[in-house]
Amino acid sequence: MKAPDSLGTGILSALYGAVRALQLYPAENEVVTRALHEVREQADRILDREGGLSIWFAGNYMFVNDLQVRLDLHDYAALAAFREVFRSHGVGRMEADPKASADDWQSFLGAIAADPAPGQPPLEALRAELQKRGVSNISVGPPSPLFEGSEGEEAVEAARRTYSRSVKVARDMMEGLVLGKAIGARRAERAVLSVVDRVLQEPATMLGMLTLRDFDDHSYIHSVNVSILSVALGDYLGLNREQLFELGFAALFHDIGKVLIPPAVLNKMGWLNDEEWRLVSQHPDFGLLMLFNVEGFEELPYRGMLAVYEHHMKPDLSGYPRVIRRRRQGLFARIIAITEAYDAAISNYSKQFLPCSPDEAIRQLREAETGAYDRVLTRAFVNMMGIFPVATLVILDTGEMGVVVAPNPNVKALSRPLVRIIATAEGERVGDGPIRDLTERDPDSGEYRRSIARSTDPARYGINVSDHVA
Amino acid sequence: MTDPTPDADRSLDLTDAAIDDELVGMVEETVNALLKAARARQTYVLGNPLIEQFTDALREKLVTLWDELPHLSLDMDEGNLLWRDRTVYSKAVGPDNFAFRFFKDGIRQLAFLPGAEEEELAEFIEILALSRQAHDDDLLATLWHRDFKTIRMEYVDVTDEEVAEVPRPDRNAGAGEHLENMEEIDAVLESSAITEEDAEEFSDITLAEPDLLYLKREMESEWARPVVHDVTLALLDQFEMRDQQRRRQVVDILREMLPRLLVSRDFGNVALIVNELQLLANKTGENDTQELVTSLLRDMSEAMAEMVSAVGPEGTSPAAEELAALVGALQAEAIPTLVRAIPAVPNRQTRERLTEALDRLVGSNPGYVVDLLAAEDPMLAAEAARIVGRLGLTAAEPDLVELSRRPEDVTRQAAIEALASLGSAVGAEALAAALSDSGRDVRMAAVNAIAAVGSERVLPLLGDAIAGSDLANRDQGEQIAFMRAYAALAGDGAVPLLAKLLNGRRWWGGRRAPNLRACAARALGLVGTPAAQAALEKASGDRAASVKSAVRVALKTLDADSDERLEVATLTEDHESELVEDPVDLDLNVDGMADDGKEGSS
Question: Across the interface, do A448 and B2 touch by the CB < 8 Å criterion?
């Protein structure tokens, strides 16, 4: 017998409620007492039923006693926040046995509710704190690998295969459309579901793929990048796997209408004239109409088609295509608008603008004119990516140079990502440098060991960032 | 890969030594039970108790297994299922091999978790069984989309096509080299670096509670979004672009889309499309555009008429406004469907609206309905005849005459009724001929029509029919109809024959059958002349109760004025049927026996 969904979400919600209560009130407050009581009740239900309670996280999945907990909208924000609390302490697994007492729970949650102690790896610090508090029936462990052998390079290799396959599918489908050839919707489906799985399991690795820019036509790479970014943002927002698939599919083909625009116009350097702009701005129209006629796309959900059509429409409908019959820009389109803008900004896909660094792209999104993008979704995107997104080349205040390889697991540390050091303070390049968590503090002074002084242009130093993240 | 399988180190504390043969045997039995259940589903239709029986057996095996194992993970190669490297299922590679079915789609591991037996197992078996038939379906994709909680899988990409070589990262790139442009770094370090206060700088992007609420609302609203409606609006927006080629594209899409909307009974969007397109076409004033829209509506009319008139699940009938838009958009191509379907439409309002639409369409396209008079389907041809009659399409007379000669009663009857409505000379001849038709309903239609139209030319024919022996063998409803028609047309001239029927004796001295006499009495009552009254009074002592009763009623009728009598004379067939069915009023004995059972006893 396994804990049904309601028990899984019940215990997670109760734990998060207690953590929040402990963060806000003293331990003797009635709110805390009630929250702890709820935790005991929920835990006992599972312990009575199954004799043990384990909660673990893998990628963005959450499990209670090996059963994946499905989050709906109602639970997502709280439970995702709870996951981040665990992550900030480096915890991937928590186990409680039936002997766990009320005191054990209170002490355990009190330790988790506090910010990670500086000066040592957070998991070690937490374990020490639990020991100090005398918690013996609740234990914590590091995150588990998803599959045997899926760690490290193998995961990167798998992500790379998924990425290159997706680019190939995007290329074949779009070129096939131009040539009037039948295209394989099944291949596209496989590519997208693979992207979804990879993003869910190894989000940072998959986002690292965005740095692979020089091995194929930029337009196909752009499509895949937007798909990856959209799925990642969708996951961040709490979409379920099927919804992520729909979103990823729409994002992969968001620019499909561009196949009807002459390459001379698409690849024109500098500003477009009116006629060229008129043509380019019709690509969402072309996309919608084309998708209806693609063989094998009979089942393409209308939501996906709308996303293709509306992704330049803007929330205030001031974009294109012109909206005659008034309606709202859909959520998928608003997501794709943001992810596309980000990818376009950091790549040389658009011939009209020079590419900028990832952090600069984030800054541009933050400062975009009102109405251009959904403000809250933009915030969510920035939260997901961090102020310094993956692949940003940074100069640290230590004089070291590094490449951002992942956002910090502590979601509050927006400007303190994980950074791979690629050059010493003396300017000497290091091979396969160490990854540093910029939230690490000096135990003596309590100061951060490293902070980002500023980002910089890899070309200036002849650095290929993808060597260090992808 | 998809969902992660449980951590082997933690949850599967089995050493090689512990994997004894007994345990392997249990796994083997469980796998066999799984495959038997799948085969049962392949063999029998859903609901067959054998499927449930085999599935229950599998459930039992799994539950037993959970006492020994934390989960059941099966690996697969091309022809085998393996558990901890031990083969637990093996068969020649092919579509009947279950391992191969998974393997060919890239699935490399399946893990069943405790709880699988509760809810998801039956559906998994269904998918597995159907994968045998559905060659085009992708088992991996099907399982992926189903997203079982207690049955997980790992998969690989099995496509062997060439993909572009992705550059591999060189983590040691530049190792040992010295960075150039160090002046930038120096300059950065000389300026103030970011410190730990930085988090406050980003308060504008932190997701606060209202943001989370907003996102939650937005997602709820997205899933509640009427996507079909919004796609429809987008297509209509596109149609408004001043670009004939674009309009053609949109119309082509709608040509594919509308049938799907109709099948799903999405009348709201269909109505929106047809309404808007017509408005837009009129607004442009361009012939090309109007023709484009008309061609679409022509193509869709049959389907629209079909779906609007079909009985759907409750709550899927078009609303009044939708119905108005839909019937308003129907083109002549809908006529055959409407003709066929309208009589069966249960909803009165819908039936009336469709009938109005039909009449409008036939009014400007009579050819469609005239053509239907030659339809093989007798019901369709008959319905067409009724419409022709209702709308007075005189041009259809020759076709109606043709129809009146068809072998099916229903078509001949409808043709006769229509011809009667048209009131033409050609029609009158057909009516006369129909008095001796082999079909009762046809004769009734003819005689009622004759009574109503008043064709004196057929009087001799009617007289012959009444005097002849055939009528005596027909039901009383028909007898009444014939005699009334005769009375109505001949007036006082009908009295001799009717009186003879009522009071006369036959050559052997016997009288007519009581029911025939009763009908003659009723007809004389309608004539109402002194001669008729005299004949009735003569029969007032008739020994047959039904005759006596009919005479009494007829004499009472004489007290009514002539208008009332005429009204009575034009009684509808329904009323006549009522009379026929009234056992008190009528004697159903048509074989010449008197009420008392004696043949011509007086």
Answer: no
Among B178, B194, B201, B249, most A C-beta atoms within 10 A, so best to mutate, is: B194
Q: Which residue type occupies A292? A: F
Say yes or no to pLDDT of B574 above 50.
Answer: no
B246-254 CB contacts, 8 Å cutoff, 24+ apart? B246/A285, B246/A289, B247/B289, B247/B292, B248/B292, B249/A289, B250/A289, B251/B277, B251/B292, B251/B293, B251/B295, B251/B296, B252/A293, B253/A289, B253/A292, B253/A293, B254/B296
Q: What confidence score (pLDDT) does residue B192 get?
A: 54
Q: Residue B564: is its pLDDT beyond 70?
A: no
Helix (H) or strand (E) holding A45: helix A30-50
Distance from CA of B166 to the nearest CA of A (A): 6
**Other Cβ atoms closer than 10 A to A197:** 26
Please, which residues have CB within 8 angstroms of residue A213's CB and are 6 or more apart in sequence?
Answer: A221, A347, A348, A466
ipTM exceeds 0.85 = no
Cα A417 to Cα A207: distance, rounded to the nearest angstrom: 14
Å from B237 to nearest chain A CA? Answer: 6
Q: Which residue has the higher pLDDT, B140 or B136?
A: B140
| Predicted pLDDT of residue A400 | 93
CB–CB contact A144 B170 (8 Å): no
Q: Do A376 and B205 touch (CB under 8 A)?
A: no
Q: Which amino acid is at B491?
A: G
For chain A, residues with pLDDT lower than 50 are 1-3, 73, 145-150
User: Which of B1, B104, B247 to substitute to test the interface with A, most A CBs within 10 Å?
Assistant: B1
* Of B32 and B576, more confident: B32
Cα distance between residue A247 and residue A231, in whole Å: 7
The beta-carbon neighbor of B3 closest among A61, A162, A242 is A61
Amino acid code (one letter) for B194: I
Q: Which residue has the higher pLDDT, B88 or B170?
A: B88
* Residues of chain B above pLDDT 90, percent: 35
Strand arrangement of the beta sheet that strand B151-155 belongs to: B86-90, B80-83, B72-76, B107-112, B151-155
Interface contact flag, B202 A415, Cβ < 8 Å: yes
How close B333 comes to chain A (CA, Å)? 26
Strand partners, B80: B90
Binding-face residues of A in 111-170 toward B, CB within 8 A: 144-148, 150, 156, 158, 160-165, 167-168
A197 touches chain B (CB under 8 A): yes
Residue of A nearest to B190 (CA): A397
Cα–chain-centroid distance for residue B494? 53
> How many angstroms away from the CA of A161 is the closest CA of chain B?
8
Please, are residues B522 and B484 in contact by the beta-carbon 8 Å criterion? yes
Q: Which long-range contacts (CB under 8 A, 24 or more apart) does B307-314 make?
A: B307/B262, B307/B263, B307/B265, B307/B267, B308/B267, B308/B350, B308/B354, B309/B337, B309/B338, B309/B341, B309/B342, B309/B344, B309/B345, B309/B350, B309/B354, B310/B341, B311/B345, B311/B346, B312/B265, B313/B265
- pLDDT band at B375; cut points 50, 70, 90: very high
C-alpha distances (whole Å) from A352 to each of A108, A268, B46 are: 55, 7, 60
- Looking at CA atoms only, how far is residue B398 from chain A in angstroms? 48
State the pLDDT at residue A300: 58
Q: What is the mean pLDDT of residues B44-68?
A: 90
User: Within a 10 A sphere around the Cβ of A35, how many other Cβ atoms?
Assistant: 22
What 3-state class would DSSP assign to B148?
A: coil
Contact A292, B253 (CB under 8 A): yes
Mutation pick from A49, A115, A190 vs chain B, by most beta carbons of B within 10 Å, is A190
Q: For residue A258, which of A226, A299, A234, A228 has the smallest C-alpha distance?
A: A226
